Predict the structure.
Amino acid sequence: MARAFGALGVLLLAVTAGLVFWPDSERATPATAAPVESAAPDLPTMLEQKVSGVLQGQIDALLNGDEKAWLAPVDPKVRSRYRAIYRNLRGLEVSRADYDVKVLDRSTESAVNTRVTLGYCLSAAARCPTWDERSEAGAPKVLYDLTFTLRRGAYVVTSMTDVKNKNYLQPTPWENTELRFVRGKRVIVAGPAGQARNLKRVLTAAEKAAAVVDRFTTEKPDRYRIYLADDKAWKRWYGGKLSKWVVGYHIALNQTGSDIVLKASEVLDSTRQLGLTVQHEMAHAATLVPSTNQDPQKDLWLIEGIAEYIGFNPEQPQRTESRYALQTWIRKHGDIKSIVRPELTEKSDDLTVSALYATGHYAVGCMVDQYGQDRTLDFVKRVVRDGQELDPASRASFGSPFTTVDRACVRWIKQRV
């Protein structure tokens, strides 16, 4: 296994964050006496060392902003994709680089087949974690199969293939198509060329939303990143397997931050729709990462409740669409018995989905009204991010059992629906 590190603007000894290629498994390095003569490396090790030099040069070029050097060892048939990756990662403020390469079977000295693992940190230099081989830990990772071909004494990348079913974070928005970018004080917005004309409109809404969302967290993201997807990209980015009611989503990049993806054909219908969706998803970015919650689906009512509360801020729940959703639910199904709603499934109808969001929205509004914003946010953190059960979290944050909070908020909701 070969690893390399780099950092933008700092010495190698002071690496703090980064774009990362990682190995599939740790290498044991037992202490041994130094031999008088070192044995010649076997063929896979020799090939690994040689292609590692190519990769290290590209990592240095990426971090130093040298596109020419990044593309130098790349065959013309894959150069357009490499150019897109370089320009996209630079646009997304990549801050550190690290790679691992593993030589695969069927390799020869003239054609080296490799599995390369790439991890990355964006706009988060101080928070990029050290290497971790697990896909869900450390910095986020993507995987590729690369072929290096020996030409005139130097190795050139002649093939780049995606590794299927190896990583839940692929395909990313930035690895196949050159994106267009706009950026503000707190937000970067990117999208395919066909959405370029809409990016500034999204940025305007997002900068306004960021000023609201930032008031609800002491751990502000370094940057909010928003991707505006056309219908083709919506079906592809991050797997594209989304529930029918989703028009935008937030995805955590392990513990290093998160991305927000919006469906352009849905969110651009009106300024209000765009603003609410952006502010809701940015609320997720501010309240969900980092997280150690092992079963977030059971807490979905609160995850979406706090996002709705922040997303509609400064409007109160009873003055939003949440009121109509709960009125319809109560008319068809009777009074709400608890602020905790069952998990959603693919069979959940629109009213069930709306009722979960609306109940959570009202529940957070109740908690803020009864206990204050700071204590409510502490409760949300304990449950949503730390994975605590509702009762101990309630006792720690509110000084009351959750059953007491639940009953009080059900009464509070009935009075306002």
